[in-house]
Amino acid sequence: MNTQNKIFEVPLYPYARAADQDAARPARHQVVVVGAGPVGLGAAIDLAQQGVEVVVLDDNDKVSFGSRAVCYAKRPLEILDRLGCGVEMVEKGVEWNLGKVFFDQRQVYEFNLLPEDGHKFPAFINLQQYYFEEYMVQRVEALRAAGAPIALRGKNKVQRVTDKGDHVEIEIGTPEGAYVIEADWLIACDGAGSPIRQAMGLDFVGEVFQDNFLIADVVMDAEFPTERWFWFDPPFNRGQSALLHKQPDNVWRIDFQIGWDIDREAELKPENIDKRLRAMLGEDIKYELEWTSIYTFQCRRMEQFHKGRVIFAGDAAHQVSPFGARGANSGLQDTDNLGWKLKLILDGTAPESLLDSYDVERIHGAKENILNSTRSTDFITPKSETSRTFRDAVLDLAETHDFARPFVNSGRLSVPCTYDGSPLNTADALPGGPARSRPGSPCADLPLGDGFLLDRLGARAAPRFQILAIDTDAPAAFAAHGLDCEVIALSTRGNPLLKDRYLGDAASAVYLLRPDQHVAARWSAWDETAVAAALARAIGKEN
């Protein structure tokens, strides 16, 4: 193992006896999060920054072994920026916008995932999951040192969860024996196998695709550009596919499609992996294997993402195939959607029924991800000779014909979800407004003075509803339904991107923005009655 990977071996949140273990009666916490992966830590940091008391439990005490999730998209990076660790991850990660697709030995297509200017973050970064988790653990420690109500307990394994109606009872096993705590709410981020979901007897339905892929994380000095390269039917893996992209520290992620009827133990032997790597990279290649694994495509989800006072997020709620980078990216969007809603419920500002919108919106996102992942899988792994013939014809045409390129699907990469049809949306009232910023959409970033628009929205310490008044008059502040809304007045003079992304053909606009930077409503001018009604709807007080 390389010296940079000693992070795997060092407990970052080692077991320490908590005061709860010596309490005469079970201690009560506002929120307990189960799972200290990217999604669980994201949920905990989000809540702690809002002043919500949260305890994170994990049966491990280290970051994940192996790079696992690698690709992080622009929208999750924007979320991570509000969590206080986005910039550090971008600085460490490998930025990329360009992807190339090869058929046999020919390049047939390339795409740019961020063809427009004016964004703080790149389309994607590649960053090993162990680094990702390390930055998040460091953020937890920084918050705790600053007095935030957050605790991270390693070697604390949840053994039983009982929903008591107005709270959840949790039995936890530790190296020093079991203890019991209570929580107003429990967020299960305990992975695709989710012991909590299974113990509660909840569904997890979908499709398992009959194909396997070998991951090899390879440390090597190579001259490949920092792009995503995907091969269909390459000479080094005939009849199958392969993927190559770069991570920090000269680690390269290589995926080989290897078929369904395989001997897993044999495929993972170093000598057999070596044959595949040398066929791809050349006999003279010098490398070191950092991590290997075999995975199978699976696209599954729960029918409902919360049951009583237990809420599911990330892979515990939905699972998609890795191509397209939709796992951790969509999980972070789960927590971004959930955090502000749970805060309002805990404060008594919003009814508990607001959680129903978490189900509606994030199931919408999960369906979108599963649809795209299924289509990618069907294209990458044709199920019949007819499908393969069609796929190969599309690849041939894509080399010279623009019309064929949108049909090439080597994994439609993660994009932010627009919550069309959400019960929290107010009907669009901005004639001529851009479709990209319609109600339900995440706000598009753009330069604003010496910073960026998203730096002004959804503030880290106190996420709140905000109002954008663009080229029109509005009050300096607005309050309704127990919420104080910040009003931000902007002008499009000298800022064509603001006009393009928020006005379109309209002369002016007023936007109501949620704490997660999604548009709740928009109008052409200020209307206090309409804004108040839209705010009530956005917190679940009106439908």
Question: Share of helix among residues?
Answer: 25-40%
Strand content: 25-35%
Low-confidence stretches: 1-5
User: How many DSSP-defined strands?
Assistant: 26
Note the gap between the termini. Answer: 56 Å
Overall body shape: globular
Q: Measured on Cα atoms, how large is the radius of gyration? A: 24 Å
Total of DSSP H or I helical runs spanning 4+ residues: 13
Characterise the protein shown here.
- The chain has 543 residues and is of the alpha+beta class.
- It has 13 helices and 26 strands.
- Strands 1, 2, 8, 9, 10, 11, 17 and 18 form an eight-stranded mixed beta sheet that branches. It has an eight-stranded mixed beta sheet with strand order 6-5-13-14-15-12-16-19, with helices on both faces.
- The protein is globular and about 70 Å long.
- The termini are far apart.
- The model is unreliable at 1-5 (pLDDT under 50).
Brief sketch in words of this structure:
The protein has 13 helices and 26 strands. It is α+β, with helices and mostly antiparallel strands and 543 residues long.
Comma- or semicolon-separated keywords:
543 residues; alpha+beta; eight-stranded mixed β-sheet; 13 helices
What order do the helices and strands come in, and which of them pair?
Elements: E1 27-34, H1 38-49, E2 54-57, E3 71-73, H2 74-83, H3 86-92, E4 94-96, E5 98-103, E6 106-112, E7 124-126, H4 129-145, E8 150-153, E9 157-163, E10 168-174, E11 177-188, H5 195-199, E12 205-219, E13 228-232, E14 241-247, E15 251-257, H6 264-267, H7 270-281, E16 288-301, E17 306-307, E18 310-312, E19 318-319, H8 327-347, H9 355-380, H10 385-398, E20 447-448, E21 451-452, H11 453-456, E22 466-470, E23 477-480, E24 483-490, H12 496-503, E25 509-513, E26 519-523, H13 528-538
Parallel strand pairs: 1-2, 1-11, 2-8, 5-13, 11-18, 22-24
Antiparallel strand pairs: 3-7, 4-7, 5-6, 9-10, 10-11, 12-15, 12-16, 13-14, 14-15, 16-19, 17-18, 20-21, 22-25, 23-24, 25-26
Helix pairs in contact: 1-4, 1-8, 2-3, 2-8, 8-9
